[in-house]
Amino acid sequence: MPDTDRRKLLKTIAAGATVGPATLLSGCTGGDAKTDVGGSTTEQSEQDTETGSSGGSDATDSLSLRILLDHPFDQFDHNTGWMGPPARDIYQNLVDRDYDMKLQPGMLKSWSFENDNSDLVMTLREGITFHDGSSFDASHVKWFMMDYLMNGSGTSYMVDGVVDDVVIEDTYTARVKLANPAPNLLWNLSSGYAAVPSKGAYEKHGDDYGRSIAVGSGPYKWKTRDGDRHLVLERFEEYDWSPDWIGHEGAGNAKEITYDVITGTASRTAAIETGEADAILTGLPPTKVQSYENNDEITVYRADGRQIRWLGFNLNPEKAGVIAEDLNLRKAISYAIDRKSIVDGLFQGLGQPGVNLLPPTVPSQDISDEYNHSFDLDKSKSLMEDAGWTVNPGGVSTKDGEEASFELLTTNASTARNLATIYQEQASKIGVELKPKVVDEATVQSRIKDGDFETIVEGYTWQNADILDWFFAFDMTPYPAWFGVQEGREEDMRANELIEAGMSAGSWEDRIQKFKKAHEYLMENLVPAAPVHYPEGISAVRSEVEGYEFYTLGTTAETISK
């Protein structure tokens, strides 16, 4: 699969579809990809006013739910960077991920690889219809993969250079002809970007599709939308094809579901505390978790998330000088970060200390412990000494007449600024001066793309090892500017070879193992970032709500009632 083809998603994200904060709130769930840098617009003051619907669920209607989010909606099709949890109610996928994030049949009954993994045979579930009454069959799969995904600005990477053709063998059997073995295709088809729409509705509504209407085959259908902060869905009465792993039969329990976006933290939490809302799906502040866990009226759901916060380094010597040239210096800074104190202090004990470049829900995160990083001040100081750094009387280390003093780029969001202050204080213990530079998000994005930074407060949300390819392969556009990985340096060439081996692996297990090797190499020989924090996925639900299951990708709404 050509590199330029399999990497088109990043062009969409880089253009601003979902570029956001490293200051990820612990409750974030929803769309698959977020590239998170700097600060979050969701972190607003306690005095922020409520946005969205002002009314709560009618207490006399046990089948009406109101769910709160902290992110405005985007367009509900493959051009969006964040469709949000409602997309999981409107749409279904050919392939699902269950509560444990393992691949499961969705709209497919089964699948198999044949002819030395060059064919993917899909057996479709029969009887599925879309909200507009149109049928789901093998011809729809062909259109979906060869037209909809192939021409989507955020989805073409899934199939372009991967899928040669889709052959309709019969009404409910489609044979996907692969350009080469593609074990990652099934995972891609389970992502929010690969939700399956009605062909007729998509073609009928053109540019308005995803804004004024979205038509899928999920348990709830579009009723009304008010801007990017209020959406009402109603039960799809004909729905009777919930995937087996969800454990539900028939139409959804709730008659109607209202999604409201409330960006103000105080307003969002007040709504669930007073019963005006039934759940906070994204944006539950860490400061509220303990009190809610002790509140009989609210249930808190927690699980491993898909996110990571880190202190990023620019590896381009022309842009970042000694921070890019000195591996031991980067390692020393990483070992100087007291992750547990950050998790316990700044994040109220929520989440885990970061140890490497992948979240804990990604199989290739589980590398040999010798390559993981944790707080070790003695080791940090030893690395500085071995590299020839000496602390001068002013407290800043020097080497060959150059000081270990670097700008730390961040946004003005509260968590980002707090992290910058902590990084600054902890790095000072080894004589490294990190000088926070607070700018707005647009400036951060511009400087990243120009490679104009030395160190940065950063993070991302993703659940696949191909994030290593996106960030650290030197031929990825525009992301090499983020970390300065460049063709010509021997260590970068080796990293690129290992990453490419993972991307071109012939099976899923082989892919995991090859990405582990690439991951270990990055942690030992490049250290493009100091991993700091794995936030948890957290949501809060009123205790009278029944049938709720925590699902890191959004909701399984058909099971919920109250």
TrEMBL record:
Every Solute-binding protein family domain range: 102-466
Single biological process term from Gene Ontology: peptide transport
One GO CC term, this protein: periplasmic space
PROSITE patterns: PROKAR_LIPOPROTEIN
Molecular function in Gene Ontology: peptide transmembrane transporter activity
A Pfam family per the record: SBP_bac_5
Gene3D superfamilies (alphabetical): Dipeptide-binding Protein, Domain 3 (3.10.105.10), Periplasmic binding protein-like II (3.40.190.10)
Disordered: annotated segments: 24-59
Compositionally biased region (Low complexity): 39-59
Stored InterPro entries: Peptide/Ni-bd, SBP_5, SBP_5_dom
The name this protein goes by in its record: ABC transporter substrate-binding protein
Source species: Haloferax volcanii
